[in-house]
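Reopening: Gamma-glutamyl-hercynylcysteine sulfoxide hydrolase still failing for me.
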Amino acid sequence: MCRHIAYLGSPVSLGRLLVEPEHSLVRQSWAPRRQRYGTVNADGFGVGWYAEGDPVPARYRRDRPIWGDPGFPDLARVVRSGAFLAAVRDATVAGADGEAAAAPFASGPWLFSHNGSLRDWPDSVAETASALSARELLDLAARTDSALVWALVLHRLRQGDDLGTALAEAVRELAGAAPGSRLNLLLTDGAAIAATAWGDSLWYLSDPPAGRVVVASEPYDDDPRWYEVPDRTLLSATPARVTLTPLKETTP
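Support: Ran it again with your exact input. Result attached.
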């Protein structure tokens, strides 16, 4: 269910990581190597990136397969950024939300993606969703499980939680309400990355001397410095450091 990737470091073209590698995100849309659920990620895609001096990221999203958008290779070739997040989507259930359902979701300085699904959606998380205000529910980006996950994370960010705490607490609540859900979450503010491994693959490539870090559902090449994140783990990363923290299962 979906593939995603986030990068922090020296400015590079989006295509350097998303298109050019042998096992890039574009290739993962039809031939992922480590995806545990689903086989084709053709229900939309998106990329969000930060421009120097502007804390609010730009986004480009579509409701089609990434390989079917003739404009994306040109955009990826010329846009350069030192921080970006991109995803290809495999929908949990059929819907008509179009590109609104494609990650990355965004608000203010934050970009977010969810790789996974909420089990027995939407009935299983009705009580969890009741913690959101009527305004927050009306502002849901789409009528999808990922959009609700984002709303819960965003609620915590706006209350002052840091990136890692916002993800960890959202995962704890959702896993308790809907056991068996897959909750690989990816979040950045352009300066740091937080991610969770919960039910699907997550890897990172850290290169502190070069001042860069990549966090992704799976490696885009065979560089031996890729490291797999254990399941039930929170990852917090900057270009200088990566920290892994075990996440505890919540008993329903």
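The mean pLDDT is 94. If you still see a failure, please send the error message rather than a screenshot.
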